[in-house]
Amino acid sequence: LETEEMKINHNGKTYQCPASLSEIPLKQVIDFQLQYGKDLEKFLQNIDPENELDFFEIKMDMACKSVSFFTGIPLDEIYKTDLTHVFSIFDNVLSPIFQPQEERTLFENYHFKGELWTIASPQMTFENTMTFNELILGKVITNDIKNFAAGKFEALQRLAVVYFRKIDEKLDESWLSEEFEQSERLKMMAELPMDIVLDIAFFLQSSMS
Q1: pLDDT band, very low/low/confident/very high, at 134 (cuts 50, 70, 90)
Q2: Which of the 8 DSSP states describes residue 168?
Q3: Separation of alpha carbons 47 and 136, rounded Å
Q4: Which listed site, 16, 92, 96, 201, has its alpha carbon 20 to 30 Å from 65?
């Protein structure tokens, strides 16, 4: 298994490998959770293990499945690969998706789809444009993402609809209509790169804790 730039050469075939979280869209992570949700829950529940050997086995399995999923290399081939290479990709690129981070560097503005966006503060002040309904909705969803359980990344997608906006943009209630699951805004948020998604989650958890 040889890594070169954004490509991996494995058994005579070339696979694309994300070099950073910015290359992984939220939708792909949601799809990963749909496929490996139970394994992910087991991994998250054992992040602070009493038995390090048991946790290593769980982490090894999660590393293999995530590297396989995000590169396209068949899982049975990943299981036969030198774990040093598998852990290198997992630890350097993929693990921040699944493991809580105590610190993140947040930015005032973000570039997305050719425009400038920002994370709206959930705090009620006279200076921001957050309404009471928006605050309550966001707080309910934020409680979901504190539990590393099934649906977490879908909750982040809903959170992004509420709190991630273009500069000076106010929340449009049509984004949260009865047809919410089919809204164009929700679909757009599925395309958010994971570095921005994790910034949104970190910012909101810090602001609302």
Answers
A1: low
A2: T
A3: 30
A4: 201
Nearest alpha carbon to residue 73 among 143, 17, 147: 17
Give me the chain's average pLDDT, please: 82
Going across the sheet that includes 110-112, the strands are 110-112, 115-119, 164-166
The token pair that represents 185 in the structure block: 């805004």
Whole-Å CA distances, 123 to 84, 130, 192: 44, 8, 23
pTM of the model: 0.82
Half-sphere exposure of 2 (CA within 13 A, CB side): 6
Cα–Cα distance, 106 to 197 (Å, whole number): 11
Question: What are the phi and psi torsion angles at 64 (to 5°)?
Answer: -65, -45
